[in-house]
Amino acid sequence: MCAESDELIDLGIMDWEENNSNQVINVLIVEDHEITRVGLKLTLSQMPLLKVIGEAEDGQSAISRALELKPNVILMDIGLPSMDGIEATLTIKTQMPDMRIVMLTSHDNDRDIFAALAAGADGYCLKEVSGTQLSLAIRTVADGAAWLDPAIASRVLKASAQTGQIHTSENLIPITQSSSIGRLSQREMEVLALVVEGLSNQEIANRLGLSVETIKTHMRHIMEKLAVSDRTQAAVKAMRQGLV
Question: pTM score, two decimals?
Answer without folding.
Answer: 0.63
